[in-house]
Design a protein that fits this description.
Blueprint lengths: L14 H6 L14 E7 L5 E7 L1 H4 L4 E6 L21 E2 L5 E7 L2 H10 L1 E6 L26 E4 L2 H7 L2 E9 L11 E7 L2 E6 L4 H12 L6 E4 L15 H13 L3 E4 L5 H4 L6 E9 L5 E13 L20 E11 L12 H19 L3 H7 L17 H12 L11 E3 L2 E13 L6 E6 L5 E4 L9 H13 L6 E4 L16 H21 L10 E6 L13 E13 L5 E11 L6 H20 L5 E2 L4 E2 L18 E5 L18 H4 L1 H13 L10 H8 L5
Parallel strand pairs: 1-12, 10-11, 14-15, 19-20, 23-26
Antiparallel strand pairs: 1-5, 2-4, 2-6, 3-5, 7-15, 8-13, 9-10, 9-12, 13-14, 16-17, 17-22, 18-19, 18-21, 22-23, 24-25
């Protein structure tokens, strides 16, 4: 049968369940005797608990118990210190959980948490990041194992000798994931067996962590994430909610649900750390880059080190003989930062692509042509050949679709009454990542097939795409394939993160189904009642070192209107064109691209968090103050892709698409604002107060 399922715009298999409300999430598990627990966050920025009065909480109707560091079950020391909840009196940052109220209803748990009285011995704290902070240091590695420093040639000397130079700084504030479904877990024991329903991007990891913390064998633990209402990185590894749920159910002997209030999420589930960037670009008069220096300073907590790898995109993008990329980090009394959609690439490419736009202005060159002129033949940092790189095609195709040739390059050249209009462009890149995973494919007597792998569908359509892969490998119609995902009892698989999911899970699904199809071809009779099963495991291959530099690329274009009276920026058009390998489902891929671009629009215009120096906490802690884009903010957004055949990735030739969409969007919008106004704003988000202040400065 000719393969037809892969690439088709198949509808999501779970779509009807979600729109009708029948899909069940982690907190929606009505188990007999279930209790609800509410954590109590610390009210100081640093110190230790000296006393906890729980009498007021225990006196309330419905409150069953209050757990603190004095009576909570003991845990083994975790590899991730943020999971050592209720294990001691130390308070490393504001919002650290110091108690857990367990009650027979959510309302009683909330009232009980408000009634707990905690006294502290406060200590001096420091939560303020600066590029000259005396505690700043260069770590050994940034996130994901990237070297903190890379240097080639003589970047300082080449910069000093360059005909045209740009030396600029950019600031990206703390950003928060804020998934639609806050972090939640429901846990219960059946004898010595623990079952947990949790909102997680990978239950295999959760099972291993819980087994270690509670002294269990992994076979004693089942972790289920049937449906997940978004995560954007914050659910990539276990968070305190799942540990608290298991602690409470072990203490009470009853099922317990912990659903974290949205206001506490910034303090306990990670955030995108603020980044301070300094970019120095030196070029010949014809636009050839000679020197590139990208230095980043960010913060981490004192609980554990996490370094946003924001300088790494500069190691990939442009042909430049002399370069240095460097990360510094400052340990502060802040919540532990973690992954947020396209960690490193999102803030790093904003700064880099804004600086490239500034260089284009200094050169008097078209910013699109400047990028093309500096297209590398091999990856600049490693020297390895690219498995595929079609960035120039993305830029050219995007320019054609956007109407770039009609652009008047002069700043402030477009106006409509009080509105100034402009357009901008930026490039994007994101690494291809694949992790070992396993899968099983079973032929059943009724002519259907069951494919199982512990993938996690976080709203990306993983069930649907995996079914398409299986159907083509088996040579059967899509409707004859059933998919089971989202449980640690299934064949183990990697987490849904780093845009690696489909590439990682689709590989063993494809192999298991190909083997099953071959076995069925020579099978001498009807399928037995128990079915026929084939397995696949990509360990040793998916994680093998590649001789190629593997990345997805894209080009972003934006048109904006800036109101000179109010300072408001409105994005009129967004266009993204991507080179992301083989597109396995046109419908879900477009949704992923558009979702990333929308998130990038929020990063550019509305999303930002402030660390209160005196209070030691994020002031924008809920969706009333942390503003994410709404439908009205995205009037015209398009995503397209170029055909790309890359044989050096996996059997399907697919690259990740969940994060490339956000990477270049903020820079394209910022560059468009400069084109509209002639003003270069170098701190996100571009809120009306900042824009209007800049417009009112002398000379504008």
């Amino acid at each position: 049968m000719t393969a037809t399922a892969v690439g088709a715009p198949a509808e999501r298999r779970e779509g009807r369940e979600k729109v009708t409300g029948t899909a069940r999430y982690a907190a929606e598990r009505p188990l007999p005797g279930r209790l609800f627990a509410r954590p109590v966050p610390a009210a100081v920025a640093r110190g230790r608990v000296t006393g906890i009065d729980v009498s007021g909480a225990l006196a309330l109707p419905g409150v069953v118990t209050v757990l603190t560091h004095e009576n909570a079950p003991r845990l083994a020391e975790p590899d991730d210190p943020t999971l050592a909840v209720l294990q001691g009196p130390h308070v490393p940052h504001r919002g650290w959980f110091v108690a857990l109220v367990v009650a027979d209803s959510q309302e009683a748990a909330r009232a009980g948490a408000a009634a707990v009285r905690v006294s502290y011995a406060e200590e001096p704290h420091d939560v303020t990041l600066s590029a000259t902070h005396p505690a700043a240091y260069v770590p050994e590695e940034a996130n994901a194992g990237y070297p903190a420093v890379r240097e080639h040639g003589d970047p300082e000397g080449a910069f000093a000798d360059a005909a045209v130079r740009v030396d600029v700084g950019y600031r990206v504030p703390p950003l928060h994931n804020h998934p639609m479904e806050p972090h939640a877990s429901t846990a219960h024991w059946d004898g010595e067996r623990l079952t947990v329903h949790t909102s997680s991007q990978g239950t295999t990891v959760v099972r291993a962590v819980l087994a270690g913390l509670f002294g269990l064998e992994e076979e004693q633990v089942s972790v289920v994430a049937e449906h997940v209402g978004g995560g954007f990185g914050s659910k990539g590894t276990p968070r305190p909610d799942v540990v608290l749920a298991v602690v409470a159910t072990r203490h009470t002997g009853r099922p317990v649900t912990v659903a974290l209030p949205r206001r506490v999420l910034p303090s306990v589930v990670g955030h995108r750390a603020p980044t301070l960037h300094r970019l120095r670009l030196g070029a010949d008069a014809d636009g050839r880059l000679r020197s590139l220096v990208h230095e980043v300073t960010t913060h981490t907590s004192r609980v554990k080190e996490f370094v946003e790898q924001a300088a790494t995109p500069a190691r990939v993008m442009y042909a430049v003989p002399h370069s240095r990329t460097l990360h510094r980090v400052v340990p502060l009394d802040v919540p532990s930062p973690s992954w947020m959609r396209a960690p490193g690439e999102a803030p790093g490419m904003y700064a880099l692509e804004s600086a490239v736009d500034e260089l284009a202005v200094a050169l008097g060159m078209d910013p699109l042509e400047l990028r093309i002129r500096n297209e590398p033949e091999t990856e600049p940092d490693s020297g390895r050949p690219f498995s595929s790189r079609h960035l120039v095609e993305c830029l050219r195709e995007g320019a054609r679709r956007f109407g770039w040739a009609r652009r008047d390059p002069r700043p402030r050249s477009g106006s409509e009454g009080p509105l100034l209009t402009g357009t901008g462009v930026a490039a994007a890149t994101y690494p291809v990542q694949v992790a070992p995973s396993t899968a099983a494919a079973r032929a059943l007597p009724d002519g259907t097939f069951l494919v199982e792998t512990n993938a996690t569908d976080i709203g990306t359509g993983a069930r649907t795409v995996l079914a398409q892969i299986a159907a083509d490998a088996l040579g059967v119609p899509l409707e004859r394939v059933r998919i089971r995902v989202g449980s640690s009892d299934l064949p183990s698989a990697s987490l849904a993160g780093g845009s690696s999911g489909t590439a990682s899970w689709g590989w063993p699904v494809h192999e298991a189904c190909v083997r099953l199809a071959e076995r069925l071809t020579g099978f001498p009779g009807p399928v037995p009642e128990q079915g026929l099963v084939e397995h696949a495991d990509t360990a040793g291959r998916a994680d093998a070192e590649s001789p190629y530099a593997r990345h997805a690329f894209g080009a972003h274009f934006a048109e904006v209107a800036v109101d000179t009276v109010t300072g408001e920026v409105r994005v009129r058009r967004l266009l993204g064109v991507y080179a992301a390998g083989r597109i396995l489902n046109a419908r879900t891929a477009r949704s992923q691209f558009v979702g990333g671009m929308t998130m990038g629009l929020g990063m550019a215009l509305t999303e930002g968090s402030t660390m209160d120096a005196a209070f030691g906490d994020f002031t924008e802690s809920d969706l009333a103050s942390y503003h994410v884009p709404a439908h009205a903010d995205v009037p015209d957004i398009e995503a397209h892709w170029v055909e790309e055949d890359d044989p050096h990735l996996n059997p399907l030739g697919g690259k990740g698409i969940g994060e490339i969409g956000i990477v270049g969007t903020a820079a394209a919008i910022g560059n468009a604002v400069h084109h509209a106004t002639g003003v270069r704003l170098r701190e996100l988000p571009l809120t009306p107060d900042r824009v209007l202040t800049a417009l009112l400065e002398p000379g504008h």
